[in-house]
């Protein structure tokens, strides 16, 4: 593609007019942005012609990979036929009906209904309104409180940011809103030293029960968690955690909600993350992989009992102008169909996922300052540590992570630092050869990183 402007011009215009999300604008404008101009498969190119391996699938969303030719065709046809119509006033359209039918097919049994949004944050906010409405209809309007987890990420709207457990987000804008409380995350490495995984999973689940009892079960509406905490640093709970959380939620008559915005649509090798962990939520939120980022769209899946209860309540006074947008729905349909019919999710489960996990552990476990090497499917991480023997983390959490992340960037590999967790979640179409390439580059970077730690006297 030919562009009219130079990188310098773009940088100047970006600095002049564009406010970036989650960004220190002053410091960014001093450095200048990196302009990404095109992409294909698992690779991005910047305006200087550098080829970059995207080990993060954008923001954990481009599951099907970049540069598909069929999805833009679908979008073009849909725009020509029916660019927009709403679904509020007793109307529907073929694109949203087809998508809903397909989603009910790929969802686990009992999830035959979806509500559409434009993003993960909107899916979470929709879910918050839904669970509160659910208990109203059930005649228990005092059940209002939602329990989230510290270090969880549920988006950046007021509801999503409140439910999430990012304290640096809570600090801005008086969050969380009332009716949202948090429990500690199931991070074995930090909070379960000396315990077996099974023991720690049960202990972490007991924190949920403690919180229910503290608030009063008659006041708790739902417990909400990501099957694997994504932005929190790929925190994978022990196998005992989710089944025990499920048992506790059933015991106290509390809705169980999985935020599947990252785990959904094949990331773990299952269609949805809760299938990986063997539990069944009542509601689960999605976005990201639903359209692989080709269009903004999210969906809240509700089980048939929740759907029937909401239906029994008459009007649910909630929705968006673009709920079930025809173009987004058509593109999501083509994306989900391809993830299924081209065997992409199945390959993550049987082939590329296990291969990545084996190679990831072999490659990084040997490093002196790397521990807790972990992952499932095509979501993986390790933690940078000061001392492995005593499981001691670095001081100034996050500083070393950024230093490490910058080395990856410099070598044409995008991985993310979440604090001192280094995480990766590439497009699901990554081949075994490309996995080898990702790992080889990352290993080279880690050698440079450990060298720099020594030179700077940091370890
Ligand atoms: C990204 C994310 C969200 C927010 O999605 P947006 O599309 O950015 O609003 C919510 N929950 C989880 C688990 C996420 O990873």
Automatic annotation (TrEMBL):
UniProt-recorded Gene Ontology molecular function terms: transaminase activity
Keywords assigned by UniProt, alphabetized: Aminotransferase, Pyridoxal phosphate, Transferase
Cofactor: pyridoxal 5'-phosphate
Entry keyword Transferase: yes
Origin: domain of life: Bacteria
A Pfam family annotated for this UniProt entry: Aminotran_3
InterPro entries: Aminotrans_3 (IPR005814), Aminotrans_3_PPA_site (IPR049704), PyrdxlP-dep_Trfase (IPR015424), PyrdxlP-dep_Trfase_major (IPR015421), PyrdxlP-dep_Trfase_small (IPR015422)
Family affiliation: Belongs to the class-III pyridoxal-phosphate-dependent aminotransferase family.
Protein name as it appears in the record: Aspartate aminotransferase family protein
Originating species: Vogesella alkaliphila
